[in-house]
Write a sequence for this structure.
């Protein structure tokens, strides 16, 4: 059976790369003694797949991976057993058994489901600038209510100008810190809900860069801590292929979003 | 929240920041304020290499079992971090507490290979500890060195307060107790070092004076302190089944070179290859009890979650309980996705059966280490592996489906001739010819042979410790000759040739058999920018040459001189069990091409019997056959 697991990665574990996180969980699951399924062959590995990767330096309380087990204890026990083998800064928050696969239908991976992520972008202490917290907040409100926010989106090969506005689903300068986000004395926290996934993945830093460009300043990525709050699937896109989504985005004929946290997707 | 020594901004701008944050799985957490002794254990190379080392894991576990001691770790900061620490004047810190090492009681540095010596200076320098032991005060940590290179500690003598000669399991407790007592009594650094010098196996270089003859060789080597002993006896753990072995090894986030559980099945080797330092130093061979190993294997897999377990020893096939252990591991871990790797295995029916169970024949290769191309030269080096052994072993593997072979040789062995070198090419080709005797329909595609050569470096405590090492240009000529001879072979297209760097070999030779005069050379080279010498992208041979010139020292003196039997060698004050008389006897027999049987076939009277155990006290049998590695 397939289990979807939600975990937090915080504190000093923010310096562990996505590749290292995957290695970490392969070993952690073996330490937990769960009845996990392995691939066949001479180099067996656990059947495990991760949702949206998190950049080095960012913290999160909504990381997800799916894992295949032969037999599973109660979800409570599963969470306890995994937490018993976690290091500081890694915490299992929730787990759900996914519904059994429908014959002939390929299961949507956690990664394929990702449609949006919400973030806190927190100013670190020791990076004071001329603008006060209040002034930054006011400017941010102005920035976010513009009709269009053109930015240059660079990939390895191409550079294209895009408008951020359709991909910023929500934003405000009054974010609230959480147990896992950590907090800074200056108290400047922005909240962002951004398009995510393989098609239109917008990074919080891209938005912040545009904000600082709006202020006429250079953005210093080290001055802010990015924390992922939640990762969402879009129910309105259920069973719609990536190509189809790309086509609809181009046409501007996307249905109204119905975002649900990744763990809720199969309950709807 | 853990407080790190470095800011986010620094960590975000270096490669692999996880090297510097600690918090690995199974890291020991203690309150530094509540212990008497703070020990920082160091492997002077980059994190991924250092974290792969079993010895540190054993000592880390052993020290932390003491309630009064907190053992932490540090590795060489990579060049990007080195730069930041210097620019910002941040003292090097231990991974666990993230606190500066200069405030610790001990800094222990393991010396696994000669080319890490400049990194030792980097560690001291970045820690803001005076490089030379004589300049340290009561405020500085005691710097202690150990590991195989400590068997000739002289090139590093100025930088260490103490060297621990031998296996770490034995007298560290005594040393730490003495330290604690001295501290409680308000004793000085000197008083502590005097106590340390009285403990068996510990060498305090400050307590010895060396004088030299006009030709640069040693005239005398004498204690200058009444607490210092004339000879230092190496330490040996005689009961390997009832001693420290970590149940919960550390598991790094960054992928280590050795990303697996390491199960050391025995220490020492019965073979007596005359070039091999480990084979002489770790005598006598001592096995760990098979039940002990089974138990530890299971615990370590459960506690680390590693997907692989590797058996470690100098020659696994000589472990008497190998079949039982290996089949137990295969059976136990079959369903858990755990791989088993068996280096240094002689190819026989058992090996082929095990290998076919644990690895993909199509992808894996057979490894043989004949070390020399001709039987004559193999007799000189006492490598009891015949051409017949190799061809039979290879053939039985070929008929079982293997088609990849790796061969390891050394160039520049004592008495080597052009004929011996040519034989490397001939043997490589013979193996390929053997493969093609199999009918085409039964073959598994083409055969692939990789022949690798390293250059021979004479090491202390081996029968070749007196021998002249070849010069750089001789090595290169030998390599070119082999290259040409390989091209003449029938199957040359199936043979790939790899070789080692001759420049690095020159320095290895110097430091392997060097003396105290090299301490200043190391400082000079380090100041000229030499660091991470074992990393080709950082190795600056021209700077080394310049440093030798600046100090008026010559590499030739250390490398290209046949030493006299009477010469006082820099490491003569160490009693490693094997006697100088035995080593000289072996050197003579080698030159006469006479083979010495392995320890299980007959005792050669090497001297290791003084340790009262191991193979020296086993009933003899004829089980030991020639070694083939796979």
């Amino acid at each position: 059976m397939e289990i979807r697991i939600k975990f937090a990665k915080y504190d000093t574990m923010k310096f562990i790369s996505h590749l290292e996180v995957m290695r970490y969980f392969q070993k952690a699951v073996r330490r937990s003694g769960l009845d996990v399924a392995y691939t066949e062959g001479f180099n067996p590995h656990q059947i495990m797949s991760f949702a949206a990767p998190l950049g080095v330096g960012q913290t999160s309380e909504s990381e997800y991976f799916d894992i295949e087990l032969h037999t599973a204890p109660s979800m409570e026990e599963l969470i306890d057993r995994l937490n018993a083998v976690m290091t500081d800064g890694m915490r299992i928050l929730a787990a759900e058994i996914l519904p059994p696969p429908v014959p002939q239908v390929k299961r949507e991976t956690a990664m394929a489901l990702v449609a949006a992520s919400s973030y806190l972008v927190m100013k670190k202490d020791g990076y004071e600038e001329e603008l006060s917290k209040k002034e930054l907040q006011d400017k941010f409100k102005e920035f976010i209510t513009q009709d269009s926010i053109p930015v240059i989106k660079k990939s390895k090969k191409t550079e294209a100008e895009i408008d951020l506005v359709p991909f910023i689903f929500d934003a405000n300068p009054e974010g609230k810190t959480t147990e896992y986000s950590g907090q800074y004395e200056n108290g400047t926290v922005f909240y962002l809900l951004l398009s995510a996934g393989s098609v239109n993945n917008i990074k919080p830093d891209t938005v912040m860069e545009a904000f600082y460009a709006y202020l006429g300043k250079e953005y210093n990525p080290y001055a802010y801590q990015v924390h992922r709050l939640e990762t969402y699937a879009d129910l309105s896109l259920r069973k719609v292929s990536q190509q189809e989504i790309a086509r609809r985005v181009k046409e501007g004929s996307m249905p109204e979003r119905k975002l649900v946290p990744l763990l809720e997707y199969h309950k709807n | 929240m853990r407080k790190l020594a470095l800011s986010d901004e620094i960590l975000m701008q270096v490669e692999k920041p996880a090297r510097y944050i600690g918090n690995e799985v199974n890291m020991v957490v203690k309150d530094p304020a509540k212990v008497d002794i703070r020990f920082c254990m160091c492997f002077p190379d980059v994190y991924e290499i250092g974290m792969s080392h079993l010895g540190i894991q054993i000592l880390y576990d052993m020290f932390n079992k003491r309630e009064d001691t907190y053992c932490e770790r540090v590795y060489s900061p990579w060049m990007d971090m080195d730069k930041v620490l210097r620019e910002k004047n941040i003292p090097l810190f231990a991974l666990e507490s993230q606190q500066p090492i200069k405030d610790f009681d001990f800094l222990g540095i393991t010396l696994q290979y000669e080319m890490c010596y400049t990194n030792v200076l980097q560690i001291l320098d970045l820690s803001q500890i005076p490089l030379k032991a004589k300049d340290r005060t009561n405020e500085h940590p005691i710097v202690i060195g150990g590991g195989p290179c400590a068997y000739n500690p002289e090139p590093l003598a100025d930088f260490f307060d103490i060297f621990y000669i031998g296996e770490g399991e034995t007298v560290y407790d005594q040393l730490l107790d003495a330290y604690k007592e001295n501290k409680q009594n308000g004793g000085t650094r000197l008083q502590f070092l005097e106590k340390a010098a009285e403990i068996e196996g510990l060498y305090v270089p400050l307590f010895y004076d060396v004088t030299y003859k006009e030709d640069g060789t040693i005239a005398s080597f004498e204690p200058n302190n009444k607490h210092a002993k004339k000879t230092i006896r190496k330490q040996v753990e005689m009961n390997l089944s009832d001693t420290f072995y970590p149940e919960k090894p550390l598991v790094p986030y960054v992928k280590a070179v050795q990303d697996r559980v390491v199960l050391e099945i025995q220490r020492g080797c019965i073979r007596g290859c005359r070039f091999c330092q480990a084979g002489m130093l770790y005598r006598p061979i001592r096995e760990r009890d098979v039940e002990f190993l089974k138990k530890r294997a299971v615990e370590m897999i459960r506690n680390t979650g590693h997907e692989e377990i590797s058996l470690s020893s100098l020659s696994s096939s000589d472990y008497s309980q190998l079949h039982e252990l290996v089949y137990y591991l295969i059976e136990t871990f079959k369903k858990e996705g755990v791989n088993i790797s068996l280096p240094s295995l002689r190819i026989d029916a058992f090996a082929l059966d095990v290998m076919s169970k644990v690895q993909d024949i199509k992808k894996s290769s057979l490894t043989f280490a004949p070390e020399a191309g001709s039987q004559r030269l193999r007799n000189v080096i006492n490598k009891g592996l015949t051409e017949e052994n190799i061809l039979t072993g290879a053939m039985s593997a070929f008929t079982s489906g293997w088609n990849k072979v790796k061969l390891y040789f050394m160039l520049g062995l004592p008495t080597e001739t052009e004929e011996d070198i040519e034989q490397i090419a001939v043997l490589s080709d013979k193996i390929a010819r053997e493969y093609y005797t199999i009918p085409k329909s039964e073959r598994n595609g083409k055969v692939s042979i990789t022949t690798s050569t390293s250059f021979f470096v004479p090491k202390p405590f081996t029968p070749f410790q007196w021998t002249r090492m070849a010069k750089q240009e001789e090595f290169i000529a030998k390599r070119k000759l082999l290259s040409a001879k390989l091209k003449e072979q029938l199957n040359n297209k199936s043979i790939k040739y790899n070789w080692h760097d001759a420049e690095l070999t020159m320095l290895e030779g110097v430091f392997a058999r060097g003396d105290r005069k090299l301490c200043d050379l190391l400082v000079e080279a380090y100041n000229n920018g030499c660091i991470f010498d074992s990393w080709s992208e950082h190795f600056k041979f021209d700077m080394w040459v310049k440093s030798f010139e600046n100090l008026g020292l010559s590499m030739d003196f250390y490398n290209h001189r046949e030493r006299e039997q009477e010469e006082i060698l820099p490491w003569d004050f160490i009693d490693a069990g094997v006697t100088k008389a035995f080593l000289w006897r072996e050197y003579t027999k080698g030159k006469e091409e006479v083979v010495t049987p392995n320890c299980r076939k007959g005792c050669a009277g090497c001297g290791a019997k003084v340790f009262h155990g191991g193979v020296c006290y086993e009933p003899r049998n004829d089980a030991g056959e020639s070694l083939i590695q796979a």
